[in-house]
Amino acid sequence: MTSLRQNFIQGRWITSRGAPFVNTNPADSRQTLGHFPESTPEDLEKAVTAAQEAFESWRLTPVPRRADILMRAGLLLERHKERLALIMTREMGKVLKETRGDIQEAIDMAYYVAGEGRRLDGQTLPSELKNKAAMTFRMPIGVCGLITPWNFPMAIPSWKILPAVICGNTVILKPAEDTPQSALEFVKILHEAGMPPGVVNLVFGGAETGQRMILHQGIRLMSFTGSCDVGRIVAEQCGRQLKRCSLEMGGKNAQIILRDADVDLALEGALWGAFGTSGQRCTATSRIYVDRKIYASFVKTFVAQARKIKIGPGWKNGIEMGPVINQSQLNRIHAYVESGISEGARLECGGSRARGRDVDPGFFYLPTVFTDVRPEMKIIREEIFGPVTCIIPVKGFDDALAQVNDTQYGLSTSIYTRDVNLAMRAIRDLESGITYVNGPTIGAEVHLPFGGIKNTGNGHREAGRTALDIFSEWKSVYIDFSGRLQKAQIDV
Ligand code: NAD
């Protein structure tokens, strides 16, 4: 058990006077995994000071040298992958193969961003005047505040920390209260890889600590991933301070299956998209639109397969779906299910907490499928973030497109079809930041931009080269080597 009353600041463990909070195993709520501090204002002050001091030398460190550290971090993560996966499965609940994937994402990000460190390029451009050069450079911003959710406890911190530091910023990470240990392990590895003290600081805590970060004048940028409700608060508060802010929020992701699709493939993808990570992915498939010609048989097979999913502690062999994160998430999911039933949707399977010797002490919920869902129902409009999905019949491509786009969110969409013309129209017309063709709504890779439109985000993209745009400012530079005053727009 980790009994830690400390934050990681300036490369050292610093004791906090904040009240401890408990880290619990969601597969067995009787098991306490550790205690972590709800950081105090003094703790945050220390972290900001450390990050500000470190910024002065870090911003001047050659970028390839920064990249070397990330490369070593990737190697260390690989070496410790199995140990870290087990820690994460106990802390967050998802099955081992998925926690391995979470760590692999951090490894991929470390190598990818280390590579970007060798070409953190600007542009060289012509000048409109003679004997004059023009170019752009990426400049770091300063101290960045990073707030992360619990569903990807290492991958999401890696999406933020690594691009931020390669650009020359220093950071303060506040991970979600449900997954402090995974964040701690990640930050420890970064330091083992040679991260200088103060470049990456870690403070534990919940909303209060997050609020203090947003309002702190010494933090120049906030990068937030979490719910839409909290993201709105972050945006408002940053807006008032004119503080740079990037937001990655919820989704209500949809898969379309047309009548010409490979239905077995589409079914396999839909099951993975809906119930992988117990539906607790921002890209989880919570709406499945199926051509009415194949609808009845699809529903029958999908429900039969959903019933067969093996539920249990994620570290046990053969388990396909772990628990949800905590009691309040379990209650929230169940409240959505009850609202679906009371609004008249048909519950095909699931709809309750799972029961059995292996699952009784944990927060397990049965894979749940609804049909007869109308567009105004809450279960089709709001993000549930649990193993609940809806299957809806459609008349064809146009009907599917209209229904998929009828949502406040815009993260991930998918279409299964063999018709290249319809696939291309889907790519063009589906309103989402990510579209998959003949693949489920989940499965992003680190070297492509990741994020959504509408209420899912505020115009930024994590991952890919676009992540660098969040964490750097452009500087335009003009070098006049004519030896005389040349006036732009006047000396034409
Ligand atoms: P959440 O919004 O409750 O919490 C996210 C983080 O914000 C946590 O660290 C939390 O402590 C902190 N926080 C909560 N209230 C705060 C406040 N008032 N001020 C500052 N910080 C505050 O979300 P969650 O339950 O941890 O995660 C689930 C949500 O995250 C879902 O909506 C999911 O779709 C979203 N998510 C989005 C992406 C993406 O990339 N788009 C990825 C993963 C998860």
Task: Set down the secondary structure blueprint.
Blueprint: E1 2-3, E2 6-9, E3 12-15, E4 20-25, E5 28-37, H1 41-58, H2 63-79, H3 81-92, H4 96-116, E6 124-126, E7 132-139, E8 143-147, H5 155-166, E9 170-174, H6 180-192, E10 200-202, H7 207-215, E11 221-225, H8 228-241, E12 244-248, E13 253-257, H9 263-275, E14 285-291, H10 292-308, H11 327-342, E15 346-349, E16 368-371, H12 378-381, E17 388-394, H13 397-405, E18 409-410, E19 412-416, H14 420-429, E20 434-437, E21 453-454, H15 466-470, E22 473-480
Parallel strand pairs: 1-5, 8-9, 8-11, 9-10, 11-12, 13-14, 13-19, 14-17, 16-17, 19-20
Antiparallel strand pairs: 2-3, 4-5, 6-7, 7-22, 15-16, 18-21
Helix pairs in contact: 2-4, 2-6, 3-4, 4-5, 9-10
Bound molecules: nicotinamide-adenine-dinucleotide (NAD).
Protein model, in words:
The chain has 492 residues and is of the alpha/beta class. It has two domains: 2-249 and 457-476, Aldehyde Dehydrogenase, Chain A, domain 1; 253-437, Aldehyde Dehydrogenase, Chain A, domain 2. Helices cover 39% and strands 22% of the residues. It contains 15 helices and 22 strands. It has helices at 41-58, 63-79, 81-92, 96-116, 155-166, 180-192, 207-215, 228-241, 263-275, 292-308, 327-342, 378-381, 397-405, 420-429, 466-470; strands at 2-3, 6-9, 12-15, 20-25, 28-37, 124-126, 132-139, 143-147, 170-174, 200-202, 221-225, 244-248, 253-257, 285-291, 346-349, 368-371, 388-394, 409-410, 412-416, 434-437, 453-454, 473-480. It has a seven-stranded mixed β-sheet with strand order 15-16-17-14-13-19-20, with helices on both faces. It has a five-stranded parallel β-sheet with strand order 10-9-8-11-12, with helices on both faces. α2 packs antiparallel against α4, α3 crosses α4 and α9 crosses α10 (292-308). It is globular, with a radius of gyration of 24 Å. The chain binds nicotinamide-adenine-dinucleotide. Nicotinamide-adenine-dinucleotide is lined by residues 147-152, 174, 176-177, 206-207, 210-211, 214, 225-227, 230, 233, 248-251, 282, 383, 385, 411, 456. Nicotinamide-adenine-dinucleotide binds at residues 147-152, 174, 176-177, 206-207, 210-211, 214, 225-227, 230, 233, 248-251, 282, 383, 385, 411, 456.
